[in-house]
Amino acid sequence: MEGTDEQVSFGIDDLPVRDELRGKSPYGAPQLDVPVRLNTNENPYPLPEPLVERIAERVREAARDLNRYPDRDAVELRTRLAEYLTDTSGHEVGLANVWAANGSNEVIQQLLQTFGGPGRTAIGFEPSYSMHGLIARGTGTGWISGPRHEDFTIDLAAAEKAIAENRPDVVFVTTPNNPTGTAVPAETVLALYEAAQAAKPSMVIVDEAYIEFSHGDSLLPLLEGRPNLVVSRTMSKAFGAAGLRLGYLAAHPAVVDAVQLVRLPYHLSAVTQATALAALEHTDTLLKYVEQLKTERDRLVSELLALGYEVTASDANFVQFGRFDDAHAVWQQILDRGVLVRDNGVPGWLRVTAGTPEENDAFLDAVRDIKKEQGS
Ligand SMILES: Cc1ncc(COP(=O)(O)O)c(C=O)c1O
């Protein structure tokens, strides 16, 4: 951040910041101005024009009431989200099962504020979505890094052991996993749930941010009879609405009641609710690109394999590829060719988001060129 000389000489370390935040860096992928950005797992397609019009209409209506606080319980929005979940999973979800917030990051934060916190711990199986650990830290929750196999699937025996030994209050399962793209089978989630209940009991949060891109089904039906299970979702990926900031969860109504204890009053603005409702009127149009992105994801996998790269099996809208002695150097070489991918810090691996066919061609041209330069 910029400031006057006096402001610049005074830094974070001079403030009475909490000890566990000292020396840490904020989370965030580089937002670089390059022709092809395939680094944050966004949907590359802008919203269709009729939807843009509908959003404008809905927001105009909402604007007339902006002197008032929004619907604190977001009843209409949660009802529509419940309908979407029921329609797409075949598992009956109602208003009382659904809660929404500003992105699934806020959903996760509310869950950790409710079920984690000082003196409590959460476990995730890494590499995985690093915000789980960072939100844990932000909420004063201890973080335990659980194991994965070499192929990035969850090492169930080791995970069960870690749960039994550490007795965490919260267990994160990300399926498909970010950054690896790995899907977690329902049997594994069930086994982890049983282990977590036997150890504590604790909450199991299944992060399904990318589920619409998966070859398999959502784990929503597992909610039946499991009140300590939560499925979190987002409109940032498949819905192509990352700028909207709308995440949601499905769980037993008691979980929805519990997060009320920590949510800020009126946390979801009337503008956000109006925009999300407009988007949900156009679910079919929004999700129409999902199939195309899945095809492009599969094309990236086969072309990267054909080029001689190793690729992790992906059920998401991105592909992890390697292996590199120096992944960051390759990240830079790809960037030098105008394409931004993600270096998640997984040693030897990089991640590329499936973009439009043209963007993916640009990426494939870049890695082909790098291979050629290396003479391999
Ligand atoms: C696994 C996972 N969960 C949650 C999120 C957060 O999404 P949102 O935009 O809804 O906050 C992401 C974003 O990249 C993610 O990869």
Brief overview, please?
By secondary structure, this protein is α/β, with parallel strands linked by helices. It has 13 helices and twelve strands.
Please tell me about this protein's structure.
By secondary structure, the chain is α/β, with parallel strands linked by helices. It has helices spanning 5-9, 49-63, 75-89, 103-115, 130-138, 156-166, 186-199, 253-259, 270-281, 283-286, 288-306, 327-336, 357-374, and strands at residues 36-37, 98-101, 121-125, 142-146, 170-174, 203-207, 229-234, 247-251, 310-311, 318-322, 339-340, 349-353. Helix content is 40%, strand content 14%. Helix 7 links the parallel strand 5 and strand 6. Helix 3 packs parallel to helix 9 and helix 6 (156-166) runs parallel beside helix 7. The longest helix is centred in the last third of the chain and has 19 residues, at 288-306. 44% of the residues are buried. The site of pyridoxal-5'-phosphate has 13 residues, from helix 4.
